[in-house]
Design goal:
The protein has 155 residues and is mainly β. Helices cover 0% and strands 42% of the residues. It has strands at residues 2-5, 11-16, 24-29, 41-42, 52-60, 67-74, 83-90, 93-94, 98-99, 113-114, 120-126, 135-141, 152-153.
Length: 155
């Protein structure tokens, strides 16, 4: 299991799931008035898929002002759906998660974090040669149209 303590006090938990029959899903648990935590609730099909979802980051996007979740989806079957995904909380529900493009490129690993103002996104990226993992921290700059620029290594 992995857990992310959201800005709103909610815990977002990534764990084994039979909800869709495969891999890991993202759940949430909220603190109740008596100080205990609710049972974990699966975030549903707008976030979770038949693949594995994990490594979430939840917060307010300083660029749009909306509550967002960024997470990594791993497609262990074909790899084609692997990548960093984003969903916004609008009208009391999470939008269907969309794969995030970084200057027209997609990456297959995550651990995303946004700066408070929403202008920069940081992530771990494999810069290895395919035979070994070499993980480095990369960043992307928010473009004026709201999209993300190409990933660049942090010096």
């Amino acid at each position: 299991f992995e857990a992310d303590h959201g800005y709103d006090g909610t815990f977002y938990i990534q764990g084994d799931s039979n909800f869709l029959g495969y891999g890991y899903d993202i759940f949430y648990s909220e603190k109740k008035a008596d100080g205990t935590w609710s049972e974990p609730v699966n975030m549903g099909t707008n976030i979770n898929s038949e693949h594995s979802e994990m490594q979430s980051w939840v917060g307010i996007d300083g660029f749009t002002g909306n509550k967002v979740i960024y997470f990594t989806r791993y497609d262990f079957k074909t790899g084609s759906e692997s990548g960093i995904y984003m969903s916004e909380y609008l009208n009391n529900e999470w939008s269907v998660a969309q794969k995030v493009s970084f200057g027209g490129e997609y990456v297959s690993e995550g651990e995303v974090s946004l700066t408070r103002d929403g202008k920069f996104l940081y992530t771990v990226h494999d810069s290895g040669n395919g035979e070994e993992w070499i993980l480095d921290i990369y960043y992307s700059t928010r473009q004026t149209d709201g999209s993300w620029g190409a990933l660049k290594p942090v010096d």
